[in-house]
Amino acid sequence: MPGGYIVAFPTTRGLNQDGVIQIEGNRFGEGGLAPDVRVPFDEETFAQVFIEGRDVALTYAVFTLTNAARQIAAREQAARRQVVRVRERCLPVFGSRGLTIQV
C-alpha cells in the first residue's frame, strides 16, 4: 500500500442464529445489538481513516446525535408555540386564571 500502510481485516465476525452481526454477546452467542448507524467502508472513508487519521465512526456519531438533538429541539419549540396559542385562545374565555388540563 502507498506510504507503507498495512491493512488487516478480521477473518471472522460474530453472528447470531439469524446471521445478524453481534457487537456484544456472551460465549453462547446470546445477546448483541445491531448498530443504529452504519458507517460505510468505501474508498472515501478508507482514506479518511488510514491516510488522514480521522475517526470516521466518531464523526458519524457526532453528526447523528447533533441532527437528533436539532429534531428534538424543533419539536419542543413547536409544542411551546402550540401551548402559547392555546393560552391566547383561552384567556378571553377563562380570564387570567387560565385553564389547566391534566392529561
Give an account of the 3D structure.
By secondary structure, this protein is an all-alpha fold. It has one domain (2-94). The chain is 46% helix and 0% strand. It contains 2 helices and no strands. It has helices spanning 43-50, 56-94. The longest helix has 39 residues, at 56-94. It is elongated.
Percentage of β-strand residues: under 5%
- What best-fitting shape do the alpha-carbon axes yield? elongated
Q: What is the residue-mean pLDDT, rounded to a whole number?
A: 78
How would you sum up the major sheet? none
* Residue runs with pLDDT of under 50 for 5 or more positions: none
Number of domains: 1
In short:
Helices cover 46% and strands 0% of the residues. The chain has 103 residues and is mostly helical.
Set down the secondary structure blueprint.
Elements: H1 43-50, H2 56-94
Key terms:
103 residues; mainly alpha
